[in-house]
Structure formats: C-alpha cells, structure tokens
Design goal:
This protein is mainly alpha-helical. The protein is built from 15 helices and four strands.
C-alpha cells in the first residue's frame, strides 16, 4: 500500500472514513478477484482517486455491494465500491507495480539485486502487466499506449541533463495519468468531463512525480541514485513551484467538471493532495509557511527519527551476536497474519519481522498528520491557494 494520497485520520471526517474504506476495500477485492491474492500487495492509495472520480459522477447510482468480514478491517463487514471504478483503479495499480518492478530489473537494484531474484522479478512484472491488460480490456481501456509511455521514461531520463526542464521529465507520468483520468469520465457516463479530467490527470501526475522526487532527493544523493531534481540541476524550490501550480491546475479542472457528489473527490484530490504537498514542501499557505511551531515540530520529528535509528543500530549489533532462529514459512505466515490483523505492521513504531525476526519499523511511523498549516487551507484571508 503506497502512494501520496495516504489516509490521514486527523484530516478525514468521521462520516467519510467508511466511504474511503469502501473504495479501498473495493480496489483490494477487485485485485484479488481479477488478478489473484498476490496482486493485493500492489494496492495503491493514489489509484483510489480513479474509483472516487467515477462515483463522483454517478452519485447514489454508483455500483456497490456489501462485503463479508475481513481480517484486515477487524472482521467487520463493509459496503464497498464495485464496477468500472475499482476495475480502473486496479488497472492503474497493476500498471504502476509492473513498471516499478521492471525498473528494478533493468537497474539491477532493490530486491532484484538479490541472487536469483532478477528472473523472478521479471516474470512477476510480466504477469502483472498481463493482468492489467486483461482488466483494462474489460472496461474498454487500451493499456498498450500507457505501457509505451511509461517505458519511454527511461529514454527521457537518459537524455536529460542540467538545464532540461523538469516538465520534460514528468511528461510521461502526466500523459499516463491524464489518460486514466479521462477514462474515468467515460466509465462514469459523463463524456463531457473527458477533457477536464484529462487536464486534472496531467496535473495529478506532475504533482505525484515531483513529490516523489523531492522526498527521495537526499536519500538518492547519499546512494548516488538518479533523481530528476539533481539530474536537471533544479532545486527543491523549483519543484515546489511546479507542484503548487499542479495543485491549482487540478483544482481548476475538477471544478469545471459536471459532478453529482464531490465529497470524496474533494477529500482525496483536494485535502489529501494539499496535505501531501505540505508534508514534502511545507505549507502552501503564505502566512504560515515557516512558522516556529512547524520548525519545532520538525525538530522533534527529526529527534525521534534519529533516536529510532540509534536504537535500531544497537539492536542490529545485538542481533549479530544473539541471532534468533528465523521462522519457517508456515510459522512466519501465522506471525504475518497476526501482525496484519492487529495493525502492528502499520501502526507500531517497531515490530519483529514475521519470518526473519529482525526488528522492523511500522510503515506509518513518520506520519506527519499534524505537520500542516493550522487552517489547512480552509480559512479565509490567510493567503491559502
């Protein structure tokens, strides 16, 4: 589960949490039914925007059903989204996962760098691509041009250098997301929204690409990895300016579309998107951009992060001399189930790996839910965009 539109409890009204979960579970179950259990690991938060866009155009007429109890939601039932929206979201999730794995295979890094893993990773990428194509065909979406655009990213990155506009690097991402958003208009039965959604999709793709580049900037520099900001000679401020413009372009385009129920659309593509911007670049509010409160929060966050790293280092030293026996496959599977069902892998600061028994960190350990402009852009007269 990844993406910039990660759920933020403090930014989600209580009455919208079940609706958000309905789209999330709808995507997860669509991946399971059409691509197998393994495909559920590709669930992408950003892809939920496509399901939400379809629902926004249909309102109460949008397809849904009651899903049975699931361990990942505490054995509770849930009303979930069904139909073309979740299928389009599933196509996007599989497409992105396939492209990401293929990048690791081509670069020989990440998990693909491990002995014997490269071939398996290549087969996995091909399988996910085939599943994305099959689901896309079922909703009238031709995925071949999308894969061609994504595969062209490598050539653009190879050719870029200092002075290359950042927009040239983000162009493939913009083109792919633009077509996915435009298809949401067709699935939602509102072809008149196609151009507005295409414009919003291009802005969304640019925003996602820039946020990812800015988030990884320092880490990529330490590892010597390619980063668009370093490769083009652009700075964080350049990326911030483009991302801020993308936020405004997306909002303008969506406001011009014919929408029946904009509630969830506003939550994901306005509030969550602005929250993602704030976490990476600082507040988009001109009067609250660098307050002492925000600097103090960052200092406390950095202190906690450094403390965790120091404690992790001590644990690794102890592990080296007092290594616990790794669990076998079935024992690890049981441990994994317990960790998932109790949300420890997400919410705990640290937990023991189900198979390796090494110390791991919860994926939400650095959630900066309160690291925002105090008004979150919802007040008047503060200069918020």
């Amino acid at each position: 589960m990844f993406g910039m539109l990660a759920p933020c409890p403090s930014r989600t009204p209580d009455d919208l949490k079940p609706r958000w979960m309905g789209h999330f579970c709808g995507l997860c179950l669509e991946l399971r039914d059409d691509a197998g259990q393994f495909a559920r690991l590709t669930t992408n938060y950003d892809a939920l925007a496509l399901s939400v866009l379809v629902e926004a155009q249909q309102g109460d007429a949008a397809d849904s059903r009651n899903a049975g109890p699931c361990a990942l939601r505490g054995m509770r039932r849930q009303r979930i989204a069904t139909g073309g929206g979740p299928r389009l979201a599933a196509t996007a999730s599989l497409l992105l996962a396939s492209a990401k794995i293929r990048d690791h295979v081509e670069d020989g890094d990440g998990f693909a760098a491990k002995p014997g893993a490269r071939g398996i990773a290549g087969l996995t990428a091909d399988r996910l691509r085939a599943k994305a194509t099959a689901i896309g065909d079922s909703i009238g979406l031709d995925t071949a041009p999308l894969f061609a655009v994504i595969e062209g990213q490598r050539g653009i990155e190879a050719d870029c250098g200092h002075g290359t506009p950042l927009t040239a690097v983000t162009a493939p991402t913009e083109a792919a997301t633009a077509e996915l958003f435009a298809h949401a208009a067709l699935i939602g039965g509102r072809p008149e929204n196609t151009e507005a959604f295409r414009t919003a999709g291009a802005a969304f793709g640019r925003l996602a690409h820039l946020l990812d580049a800015a988030d990884d900037f320092e880490e990529d520099a330490e590892r010597g990895a390619w980063n668009p900001l370093a490769a083009t000679g652009s700075g964080i401020e350049d990326a911030r300016s483009l991302a801020k413009g993308a936020l405004a372009d997306m909002k303008r385009a969506l406001d011009s579309a014919v929408i029946v129920d904009a509630t969830m659309m506003g939550l994901l593509l306005d509030r969550y998107a602005r929250h993602a911007f704030t976490k990476t670049f600082g507040s988009s509010c001109s009067t609250h951009q660098q307050t002492a409160e925000r600097r103090g929060y960052r200092e406390r966050r950095d202190y906690r992060r450094d403390h965790r790293r120091e404690r992790r280092s001590r644990y690794d030293d102890d592990y080296r001399y007092h290594r616990p026996e790794p669990r076998n496959f079935f024992a690890g599977l049981c441990a994994f189930t317990v960790l998932c069902c109790t949300c420890q892998m997400c919410c705990r600061e640290e937990y023991e790996g189900p198979w390796s028994r090494r110390r791991r960190e919860g994926c939400c350990r650095d959630c900066d839910c309160c690291d925002c402009c105090p008004c979150d852009g919802d007040c008047c007269g503060c200069g918020c965009d």
